[in-house]
Design brief:
Elements (H helix, E strand, L loop, with lengths): L4 E5 L2 E5 L3 E10 L1 H16 L4 E12 L4 H13 L3 E5 L3 H9 L8 E2 L2 H12 L4
Parallel strand pairs: 3-4, 4-5, 5-6
Antiparallel strand pairs: 1-2, 2-3
Length: about 130
């Protein structure tokens, strides 16, 4: 079982295990919030983080203009051999992602534990 360390910062709570970092987002995310999130993701990528879960379970709204930059950061993670997975999206938030053209860009999971487990399954050796 992973040991999870939690740190609360502004509107984002971070849970980091040995290999997967989870950002627990909350509130209404405006374009500026999503720009800061994208900057944070790039800092994490440059520090060596390759697997990130963005949990939207406590997000009530997000500005669609922040979706495309988030897609670009996810592609950067994939080029580096990692990925960004999303969890906890309400039907409303999923519709915003679809309207912004991101319907097939992200892997979506109902709960952050499902997204974290997907990273674990990807690393499991074939028998």
């Amino acid at each position: 079982m992973d040991q999870v360390q939690e740190v609360r910062r502004n509107r984002v709570m971070v849970a980091a295990s040995e290999r997967v970092e989870t950002l627990m987002l909350e509130g209404e995310l405006e374009e500026a919030d999503l720009v800061r999130l994208c900057e944070d993701l790039m800092h994490r990528l440059h520090r060596g983080t390759r697997q990130v879960v963005l949990d939207f379970a406590d997000v009530s709204h997000l500005n669609y203009r922040g979706v495309r930059p988030l897609m670009a950061r996810t592609e950067a993670f994939r080029r580096a051999g990692g990925d960004v997975k999303l969890s906890g999206l309400s039907p409303y938030l999923a519709a915003i992602f679809r309207a912004a053209g991101a319907h097939d860009t992200f892997e979506l999971y109902p709960h952050l534990n499902d997204a974290r487990a997907a990273f674990q399954l990807a690393r499991a050796p074939f028998v």
